[in-house]
Amino acid sequence: MRLQLGIPEILSSAPLARRLAGLTAARLVLLSLSLALVGAFYLRGKFSFESFTLRVALQTFGLSFALTGIYAALLRRGRHLERLAEAQLVLDQLTWTVVAYLTGGASSGATSFYGLSCLVGASLLGLRGAFLAALSGALSYGGLVFSLQRGLLSAPRDQPASIYHLSSDELAFYLLVNLLVLVVVALLAGTLADRLRWTGGELVLATERADQAERMASLGRLAAGLAHEIRNPLGSIGGSIQLLRTATGLSDEDQRLCDIIQRETNRLNDLVTDMVDLSKPKKPMFASIDAARVAREVVALTARSGRAVSDVEVSYAGPENAPIWADGAQLRQMIWNLVRNAVQASSPGDNVEVAVELVGKNTWLRVSDRGVGIDDAARERLFDAFFTTRSQGTGMGLAVVKRIADEHGFAIAVDSSRGRGATFRVNLGGPRLSQPPPAD
After folding, report:
1. Which of 4, 106, 180, 420 is deepest in the core (most CB within 10 A)?
2. Residue 368's beta-bridge partner residues?
3. Cα–Cα distance for residue pair 53/50, rounded to 1 Å
4. DSSP one-letter code for 262
């Protein structure tokens, strides 16, 4: 599994199943109205049961009602919805072809229903759906005209024969107009539908960003107060524990308890730091930074703190120097959070590797672990604030990583599979940058 993180893509806001359900309901209403119209003509004596047109119309309506029931049953199963939508579009065009045959053939006004199906196709599947409806409509209409002109299909016995026998000029006119209308309607409807979906996606994205900004503002106000109220007693606790550990006469159990207090104090301090970094981001101060040196320093610091002291090995691999253009403090924070995340995901005896790789003119940072990996359910929310899969996690470390990467213009890729660990790769750019990336 490979997750590439960049600008999020938002698709249509209305699920296809909901649109198909609306289409099914609209089809039932249209069929009922059409059946009522045929009944009204029959009661007024326009047709009799012996009428060929009435029999074929009733058979067509009956088949359409049956197909609508099948659509509804398949829709409830919720599988292969795109194939179901495509089948409905094609069968609808065939239905309109029967109606056109009964009402005048090539010159029938019912050919306007072909355009209606193009609009429906655009609403269901966008430009692809509109052109599928246009293609199936054109083939159905063309097949009807060809069959009537070649004598493969005779005109309805109860309809005036004159309206079905057209001159070459009249036939060419109707063919050209109807086919041109199909193409124009499909193109306009499909393009408009895709544009509306993209605009709707941008609106959803803007709303999500506004909500996130509001959450970050609230978190900032909370973090500002907590940072002062928590860090002072944490500093006192940490200093007291350091003094206590130097006292003579401490038993092994006392030393173990001191280690626990020191470790939990450091964890709380990291939590406060993450809250402040996430809620009140600082504008990067770009300068020429040696990414390899920063990575080695983080590895050395990690090896002297937390679980890495006892049961998880953290190692560095890469060149001695790798100059890039970045904010040194924020780069260190990003690498630290990635390494800390890898250590926390690892099991005793595992190895976490931090590597700097020079690929062409770009410098890549790679942090790999052999932990439990990332499953499909978690991968889409991996960098969301407050999302975590660990019972003691806070869900802020990787959110800080994503924020720093976005502000620097770094691209992040994650390779992972369940049970096989995870590898975070960050494209840090290269020394060719003499100034920071332009702001958006």
Report:
1. 106
2. 353, 423
3. 9
4. H
